[in-house]
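In the design runs reported in the main text, the only information available to the sequence generator was the tokenized backbone. The following block is the verbatim input for one such run; it is reproduced so that readers can re-run the procedure and compare outputs position by position.
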């Protein structure tokens, strides 16, 4: 298996716990599903407990959310005849709307990628009055699963020292711009002082 480049955060208070290869094999067998290699790699490091993105690892529940999502997609004639793998369902009750909102995270296995695109199927607001919603599929930011996990880790735990080094050119470019802005503000303040005299 090639390098997966997941950012796994070693947080003593919130550790990732992986599944064993045997547990992953059993999960696939019991749920009658096949997982992409990048997803297996994630499960090995954070399948039992993830500090950024907990997924479903109960075979019965995993099979149930596959069927639920397939039913929802079929109602809207979305991704017909495509092989999908739903890895998580998130339910939240919104008191403001007095309604339950469901979000499904899934891969389209028909794309046959080692590091598949992660999709979200959810209800989104389609007007300014917040009273009309539509169920639709979107790609997560960064498209693929590894980027999604890494961005979730960055958001929760901050960026790494290596990433700070990568940002050095941007920091260097922004310093002269910042100095120029201060000079311009100083000139404007001085002009106003002179005009007020």
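Verbatim output:
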């Amino acid at each position: 298996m090639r390098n997966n480049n997941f950012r796994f955060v070693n947080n003593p208070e919130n550790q990732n716990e992986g599944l064993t290869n045997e547990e992953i094999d059993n999960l696939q067998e019991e749920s009658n599903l096949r997982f992409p290699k990048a997803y297996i790699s994630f499960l090995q490091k954070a399948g039992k407990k993830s500090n950024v993105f907990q997924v479903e690892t109960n075979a019965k529940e995993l099979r149930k959310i596959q069927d639920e999502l397939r039913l929802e997609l079929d109602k809207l004639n979305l991704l017909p005849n495509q092989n999908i793998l739903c890895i998580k369902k998130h339910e939240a009750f919104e008191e403001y709307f007095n309604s339950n909102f469901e979000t499904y995270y899934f891969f389209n296995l028909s794309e046959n990628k080692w590091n598949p695109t992660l999709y979200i199927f959810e209800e989104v607001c389609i007007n300014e009055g917040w009273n009309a919603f539509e169920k639709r599929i979107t790609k997560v930011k960064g498209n693929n699963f590894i980027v999604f996990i890494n961005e979730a880790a960055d958001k929760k735990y901050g960026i790494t020292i290596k990433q700070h080094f990568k940002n050095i050119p941007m920091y260097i470019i922004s310093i002269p711009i910042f100095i120029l802005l201060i000079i311009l503000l100083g000139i404007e303040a001085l002009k106003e002082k002179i005009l007020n005299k």
